[in-house]
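Notes from the pairing session

We agreed to fold both candidates in a single pass and log them together. This is the raw record for the first candidate, unedited. Please don't reformat it; downstream parsing expects exactly this layout.

Candidate A
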Amino acid sequence: MELRVLKYFLVVATERNISNAAKILFVSQPALSKQLKDLEKELGVILFKRGNRNITLTEDGVYFLAKAKEILSLVDITVTNLKQENIIGGEINIGAGESVQIKNIFKIISNMMKEYPNIKTNITSGNADDIILKLDNGLLDFAIIIGFIDKSKYEHLSLPWYDKWGLLVKKNNPLAKKDYILAEDLKNIPLIISKQIHTDTFLAEWLGKSIDDFNIVATFNLLYNASLMVKQNIGSVLCLDGIINTNESDLQFIPLNPELKVDLSIIWKKNQTFSNIAKKFLENLKTFIS
């Protein structure tokens, strides 16, 4: 399978029209159609449902599109970094969960850019499950993880920062008058929690009972959207401090008591072959936290 054919497939899947895609790719429509049919034959699946004017992706086509994007992205990253081999430059690809402490990572990168102006930083945000999948697939150099993770198959470095858990509520909520939140305060109120793996277990230890014993009305993977649910009175969010700016807002963050902290760590694949700029980043990170 050639990368050229993958690029053809990507354009056709995006345009949903063979004629338009052929014009973009500067190839004839019959030649493009033949390339796609050969690709389907090679894979042994049907990628497209062909209509009179437009085409749509089959279930296999949707899956292949996601993987094709990852493959081509990895190729682009590799080529970019190889071109920068003789100078300190290229791309740093970092995945991170939502945490105000990520600002420290950006401080390091900002300082590096003064010395190495040919740096491009790509940040992928998401929950730990999504980030680790991209790390395993080679799309990220590093992943910054909040809380527990099995680090046995990764190289890792513990970071000297932590986040605090609390409850995000509307300021007109009776709980907003409290200085801190106790486990008993959460009984019978509508709660919104992260759907990240291990979150239930982690919170259950603090609560002293299963999270299923509480009134969970919604889940989220990015906190901003969850904060909009709070504003619409759907529930209150158990979350980390500092991610949502509650200044000049009708929301308020209240810490938990006893205090519940989570540590941060940075992980990368064992036997990882880093680009020169990724090596420099790791060196600077170690110096920064030492």
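Candidate B (folded immediately after A)
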Amino acid sequence: MTMNDATLTVGSLEAEPGTKARGTVRADLGTLTTDIPLTLVNGSRPGPRVVITAGVHGGEFTPIDAVVRLADRLDPREVHGQVIICPVANPPAVYQGRLNISPVDGVNLNRVFPGDPAGGPTERLAAWLFTHLVNGADVYVDLHCGGIDQVLRDFVGYRLTGDPDLDKATAELAGSFGIEDVILGLKADGGNSHAAAARRGISAVLVEVGELGQRDEATALRRVDGLLGALRHLGVLDQDGSAPAPIREWVWSAGVTAEAAGLWYPEFSFDGDVIGEVAEGDVLGRIVDPADGREHTVHAPAGGRIFYGMHGLTVAHGDELAAIAVPWDPDQATRPETLRTPGVGVAPDEVDPRP
């Protein structure tokens, strides 16, 4: 087999073939700089380039723990291709804010990809991550979990692009993590990391495992096992003979956002494996104004299963309260009335139709 003879370089960090390098690379965000931690694993044999990020949001601890464990475990002598691991993609949010939005400018990084090198700090960070890590990758995996105020059912998400080869490869990748539920976005729109990568022809998935920002070893190790399964599927690691786990495919049917600020009292249930089965019109909860006690009732705009929901007490206008999905029906792909994927944000070349 031909040896891999390409040096893997990100900024000032380099890994020769058959070696691993760990360190930080400084990103210029205009009004400030931040140090991005990276592990570069440059295999001794040819194969794909895989980029794995965690810490896009603050308060999501299990993904960070998992990718650090993965970086420790990967032996470049056993790797085909190159693996770039970024455990903390958004240091301001991870170390200072511990929320989805950055304390630097109040922007959600996972709504502005692929970013703007001339924009605000978070837009510049998104552009830096794409320029230095994601561009040139064959595969991109962005790891998340339910944050400190969010309950969540484990799932893998990806976007349909209309490119049959790319969509097939991404569907197979999504099924390789050992997670039962796979949710398809019917368009690769918006500012999410995996959607922006898909628009550039990269096989990209979002992986959500864990909730409430909890940090526990069992969940982290389960996440590592899923990543190793995906790397075996991609040929980055040798196969171990295991068969892929069965999956169920879903499509988003609705996102629910707060139409008022106040105290949130959800009424959907989170019972073990089943999270919030609801019918259209069901009461999802109430937002109570703490000043005068007035209530705003929140109803489900569509039926299905709630895959993630707000668990925190206080909510602001526009906060995501829940996201609902239904089993995948391929006929939905041609229906123009299909609802937009929850929480996609707006890509730079889009006009947001919402007021």
